Automatic annotation (TrEMBL):
CDD domains: NAT_SF. The keyword Transmembrane helix does not apply. InterPro entries: Acyl_CoA_acyltransferase, Bact_Acetyltransf, GNAT_dom. This is GNAT family N-acetyltransferase. Residues 6-146 form the N-acetyltransferase domain. It comes from the Bacteria. It comes from Acerihabitans arboris. GO terms for molecular function: acyltransferase activity, transferring groups other than amino-acyl groups. It holds the Pfam family Acetyltransf_1. Transmembrane segments: none annotated. Keywords: Acyltransferase, Transferase.
Length: 148
């Protein structure tokens, strides 16, 4: 599969049921160090409330999504269906987010999520500081956008 096979489009309300499942599944698969017993499908709704959501499709099937809090150019979520990981989906989603933001983009990456850290560092993000959230220690990461 090539990056050309990944189509990025705007979120549609009809995507919600599948994206709820994807969000829950991807967190359970990827965040194994956390207690997931209280996680629910509806968590997607609160995690993306009032955010810009873009969806990645491959051959008409949803493979991932990203959500942005546009007022702060903050990448809040980027999740790929475990079945489609390591196939360019996350890179395509990230690339689609850049033109939607201005100045410097920011995100928080859990320190336990070493794979995500490597991904963002590979894509030009820099660790700016660290902190603690309800999910544990995180790095605040920034990426200066070139189109400003």
């Amino acid at each position: 599969m090539s990056k050309e096979d990944v189509v990025i489009r705007d979120y549609r309300e009809a995507d919600r049921p599948f994206l709820r499942t994807l969000y829950l599944s991807a967190r359970k698969t990827g965040w194994t160090w956390l207690d997931n017993r209280r996680w629910r499908l509806e968590d997607f709704d609160s995690a993306t409330f009032d955010e810009k959501i873009v969806v990645a499709e491959i051959q008409g099937r949803i493979a991932g999504f990203a959500s942005l809090w546009l007022p702060d150019s903050f990448l809040h979520n980027l999740f790929v269906d475990p079945a489609w990981q390591r196939r360019g989906v996350a890179s395509a989603l990230l690339a689609a987010c850049y033109p939607l933001c201005r100045g410097t983009m920011a995100l928080k990456c859990l320190q336990e999520n070493v794979g995500a850290q490597r991904f963002y560092l590979h894509h030009g993000w820099k660790i700016i500081s660290s902190g603690v959230s309800e999910h544990g220690k995180y790095y605040l990461m920034h990426r200066r956008l070139r189109h400003d």
